[in-house]
Specification:
With about 200 residues, this protein is of the alpha/beta class. It has 8 helices and 9 strands. Helix 1 (about 20-25) packs parallel to helix 6 (about 165-175). The protein is globular, with a radius of gyration of 16 Å.
């Protein structure tokens, strides 16, 4: 557990979208067998507290200038109305640095709009809330030929997901970070999608 996964938190942060992923990859969760785990570090545009869409107040651990790329395993950008109303352009250099350093970037819902607006989806396969939605809200988006209608898509180190694809988003994050064995990941994903935990079956794995 020597590397960090940085989770972006901002006003209107859609709190449910990354929760499944971060709870599975966190080193604090030792109840599930893992190949490796990570420190979860929240970051904001500043260190000021933010309130999620569900009304939870979060105090970011660091601001974006304190991200240590040498210790970064992934950056996760969750959805928020922020991306439609106030484009956080301050994030662009950080995301660009991650991509250039082959550090995966995962974005869901409104965060895919941010990636689209700034050209990060122009040459990679991706998903979102629909290609027309991206075009409407991101005038500089030119990646329509690479759009895939799917819950979550991974390509060239970028993970994108539909707002209702948070289970697939979690699976793709877990797989990219090599947290579970492929066999366990398949069982875990099936159990979550079915909505029933058969502890006996897990014990047999």
């Amino acid at each position: 557990m020597d590397k960090n996964v940085y989770l972006f938190v901002c006003p209107g942060f859609a709190d449910w979208e990354p929760v499944l992923a971060i709870s599975m990859i966190s080193g604090l969760n030792s109840d599930i067998p893992k190949k490796r785990s990570y420190n979860i570090v929240t970051f904001g545009l500043t260190k000021e507290p933010v309130k999620t869409v569900g009304g939870i107040t979060i105090l970011p651990d660091v601001d974006m200038d304190e991200i240590d790329l040498s210790r970064t395993a992934m950056v996760i950008l969750s959805g928020s109305s922020l991306y439609e109303n106030e484009d956080p352009v301050q994030l662009v250099p950080r995301v660009r640095d991650c991509i250039r350093s082959n550090i995966p970037v995962a974005a869901i819902c409104g965060a895919t709009l941010f990636l689209a607006q700034h050209g990060f989806l122009d040459t990679v396969r991706h998903t979102s809330c629909g290609p027309e939605w991206l075009k409407k809200h991101a005038p500089d988006y030119h990646g329509g030929n690479h759009y895939i209608h799917a819950p979550s898509v991974t390509d060239q180190g970028i993970i994108t997901a539909n707002p209702l694809g948070f289970v697939e988003f979690a699976r793709d994050i877990i797989q990219t970070l090599d947290v579970f064995t492929p066999e366990f990941l398949e069982v875990w994903f099936g159990a979550v999608k079915e909505g029933y935990l058969d502890a006996d079956a897990f014990d047999e794995e």
